[in-house]
């Protein structure tokens, strides 16, 4: 029974299978979980105490079903920077001789899961969907490497790729940052760090999928309370994630490298596309971040997917929602890349 619960929680944490003013494409208030994913509501909630007792190594050994396995022949591994960060490289199957747009992707996993084989299809799908070369960053994870180590390593990888992606047929004038869940946090933070260094113009687009951008402790967002229990990703899960990532339950809430929505200003950030899900506890903070970007004059496209859970977990690979995300991103790329 314990292994089944851990398996279900792993799915919860790790399942990621000029638009100005913001364009919100639906009201996202269906009030009903999509029947296709409702089976995931049967996953039992665990208390914060139960989560704290859960072995990290055991969780990492578990994985959701790999619906789109990718062979080793379809990817390349390299080691970069002084930290010897592993980067997974994917090119589209029908690549020609032209330089490709560059996607730097930061995977999800609650800041505790390193790159795993079932995640490979995400990078490959990004490469094929957007005819881009994808660099998937296997950043160091907690609790062995707590904040700010994942941020520091991710930014070092980003800086390295600015100068070296062209060696892999990447067009460094067309760089995009992508991320889901915890990875979306890193993508948002990297964009802010680049702005502080005055190199934000090197980034053409930031894409954030169900982003974690604010402090879950004493959260002001209604979605935390509305969706915080019985919807797969819970309030306890979010607090457990933060504790593992920071090593404390009293983090510095002013450090934008931890909570990017707390940055003093978002003005000057690259055009950003944000996707959220109706029954995700992170829904409201993702929408709020989009609105704050709008207020700062950043071109933004925003879409919330009605009836869906965090990272649209449980949807089949051929679901129309995935196609919609791809179409939205293509349109945004056409406008800003």
Task: Outline the fold blueprint.
Blueprint: H1 2-14, E1 23-24, H2 48-52, H3 56-61, E2 76-80, E3 85-90, E4 100-106, H4 120-130, E5 133-138, H5 149-164, E6 170-180, H6 182-197, E7 203-209, H7 222-227, H8 235-246, E8 272-277, H9 283-295, E9 300-305, H10 320-336
Parallel strand pairs: 1-9, 4-5, 4-6, 6-7, 7-8, 8-9
Antiparallel strand pairs: 2-3, 3-5
Helix pairs in contact: 5-6
Question: What can you see in these coordinates?
Answer:
With 337 residues, the chain is of the alpha/beta class. The chain has one domain (2-336): Rossmann fold (3-Layer(aba) Sandwich). It is 34% helix and 17% strand. It has ten helices and nine strands. It has helices spanning 2-14, 48-52, 56-61, 120-130, 149-164, 182-197, 222-227, 235-246, 283-295, 320-336, and strands at residues 23-24, 76-80, 85-90, 100-106, 133-138, 170-180, 203-209, 272-277, 300-305. It has a nine-stranded mixed beta sheet, sandwiched between helices. Helix 5 (149-164) crosses helix 6. The longest helix is centred in the C-terminal third of the chain and has 17 residues, at 320-336. The relative contact order is 0.17. The model is unreliable at 1-24 (pLDDT under 50).
